[in-house]
Design brief:
Two copies of one chain form a homodimer. Chain A has 358 residues and is of the alpha/beta class. Chain A folds into two domains: 105 residues, Aspartate Aminotransferase, domain 1 (Alpha-Beta Complex), CATH 3.90.1150.10; 243 residues, 3-Layer(aba) Sandwich (Aspartate Aminotransferase, domain 2). The first copy, chain A, is built from eleven helices and 13 strands. In chain A, the strands form three sheets. A seven-stranded mixed β-sheet of chain A has the order 2-8-7-6-5-3-4, with helices on both faces. The first copy, chain A, has a four-stranded antiparallel β-sheet with strand order 9-10-13-12, covered by helices on one side. In chain A, strands 1-11 form a two-stranded parallel sheet. In chain A, helix 1 crosses helix 8, helix 2 runs parallel beside helix 8 and helix 9 packs parallel to helix 11. The longest helix of chain A has 20 residues. The mean pLDDT of chain A is 97. At the A-B interface, helix 1, helix 3, helix 4 and helix 8 of A face helix 1, helix 3, helix 4 and helix 8 of B.
């Protein structure tokens, strides 16, 4: 039986990926040197296709890491001298905050209860000494998403501070205005439907300047994956280390497939599928949307609270015979909630079927 | 035409890998949760098979990173308070040393000229305050390898210091006595013939104790990939981040295949193929072994100097029509040397054919 992994990451592969892996194998993509012209073409294609797909300005950098967790560490190391501010709206934004603490930074935060978003970001008091504001656009743990306008409001209030957005489980859905953000990052095993093991880090010249300034002051900003090293190699369409070549190759191919489909179509379909599912959950007999405020509900990670006392495992087992693998809740909500990924690989028809079955 | 990538990494895939990738795809290995029982089985299989294959003692830890470059950084961060000593016998050991400097450690070193090994390690004067000795067993850049006895001599002279061995391009060939080493690491795209994007880090309790001591002193040892976090997750057959699940799966499968073949057979064949090739090079009309001292010649990365003034590119183009892709030299020797990987995926018959053609 064919199972659809509607888990929020790793998730179902984008439907074209198995074929691209065959092509990669027949073209020896896993054997070529990462210093060869062939690899440079692969790097260039991935970055260019991604930039086109997401409408990332030309002067932004795109580099690769092993995971998005790694980017949490690298961005704090490279772009924060002392003070950083974290908006905590779930378990992953909390771990991002803890990363700052572990790196010895003076990390400040504002936290909302699990399952809630920030009602009024303009009321946040972020001290002058804060250099960077860290926002988790889409909380994979709780299904809370931050409206893009809230991000831009923070930029408006704090134009001098770096604005960094963790978009791990939302891209390629959000249509960010990158001119109002300094850095965005994600990992490929979610919305892009690729095998895990690759983080994608997008940042602008302000981040570079900050890293260079810290380096000049003698602050350790890392080694092979510090920003100056990453961009020096990226300027030659290379990476400092031998990277996940297959992952970079597949990213370029899937971005190309998404470009063929059209990013607007993908976004419209995502919104349609999310509306369908939230509608169904709002009238469900034993499930309800876990995020109460509709404007804070994620379109890409849909979380439902179980209202009849059954465990998430029981609910998951209920739908498995229909071919749908749903995700458990996260952390404390592991047993009491289920999470459903609404990523681009899932068709409207599949979500209509899911909605019927739910 | 089928090309054999005799490049020293990425290199030819182990011959069973394409089939294992098919199986992985049909079993949804890329879609399963990294917190699921299925992933734990994959983790356990990879670690257990590797430990059996390499005869790693039970009480050693095996954890995964994005690359071996990452392990350079992590091991210095986690296991060095102030002083570290590097034996530099080529470009990669030099970068390992530079990693220590970039991390702000007091890095001391002893360096031999490119293409040479250490003639007498017992004459090295390593100061008392040095906490860790870093050895590159096999220099992928120059084709120099350090005899295992030299490593054990260092252990004998400096029993209190941590002994760390970069075995990136030699494992699974060397039959290390892990009781005389504190940490060994490698990346999978070389001897194991896997797609790049995974580093494997093997270490003992002494490394753990050191990391815990540094952490207690308030020294930053990293975040998600610090030793205490890595081993806490590994004790549950998990990783801190969403890892390269496919890579870990393939490592387990290839180790199993190598166990079926027999590690002694693999080692004997590697030695035979190396002898064959060095023999051929020693009587060649325009190539000669780049490493003069036979006891310092690597069995897994065989480097030849071009004696008739042609460039490595010309030599590589000479053998490409026969189906053999050889590697260029490294760094300054890029144009004047060629490198030939002698990894387990290449059969004796293939090397006999290569020897004939050379």
């Amino acid at each position: 039986m064919k199972y659809y992994y509607l888990t929020p990451g790793p998730s179902e592969l984008y439907f074209t990926v198995p074929q691209h892996i065959q092509t990669a194998l027949s073209h020896d993509i896993c054997s070529i040197s990462h210093r060869s012209a062939k690899f440079q073409e692969i790097f260039k294609e991935a970055v260019n296709n991604l930039k086109t797909l997401l409408n990332i300005p030309d002067d932004f950098y795109v580099v690769f890491t092993g995971s998005a967790n790694e980017i949490w560490e690298r961005i704090i190391q490279n772009c924060v001298r002392n003070y950083v501010f974290h908006l905590i709206n779930g378990s992953f934004s909390k771990r991002f905050y803890e990363t700052s603490l572990e790196l010895g930074k003076k990390a400040l935060s504002s936290e909302v209860p699990f399952g809630k978003g920030f009602e009024d970001v303009s009321s946040l008091k972020i001290p002058d000494e804060v250099e960077m504001i860290c926002i988790t656009h889409n909380e994979t743990s709780s299904g809370v998403s931050m409206p893009l306008e809230d991000i831009y409001t923070l930029r408006k209030h704090y134009p001098e501070k770096l604005i960094v957005v963790d978009a791990v489980s939302s891209l390629p859905y959000p249509d960010f205005d990158y001119r109002l953000i300094d850095s965005v990052f994600f990992s490929v095993q979610k919305g892009f439907g690729l095998p895990a093991g690759l983080g994608v880090w997008i940042f602008n010249q302000r981040c570079v300047e900050k890293a260079l300034a810290l380096q000049k002051e003698g602050i350790c900003i890392g080694t092979y994956h510090k920003i100056p090293e990453l961009i020096e190699k990226a300027s030659k369409y290379q990476t400092p280390e031998t990277p996940n070549v297959l992952g970079i190759y597949l990213l370029g191919k899937v971005c190309s497939d998404m470009l063929s489909k059209g990013i607007q179509t993908i976004r419209k379909e995502t919104a349609y599928k999310a509306t369908l599912l939230y509608q169904r959950l709002s009238e469900h007999s034993f499930l309800r949307p876990a995020v109460e405020n509709p404007s804070h509900r994620s379109s890409t990670v849909i979380v439902a609270h179980i209202t009849d006392g059954r465990t998430s495992e029981e609910i998951i087992n209920l739908y498995k015979p229909h071919g749908f693998i749903l995700g458990k809740g996260y952390g404390k909500a592991k047993d009491t909630q289920i999470r459903i990924a609404n990523f681009p690989t899932f068709s409207k028809e599949l979500f209509e079927k899911l909605s019927d079955i739910l």
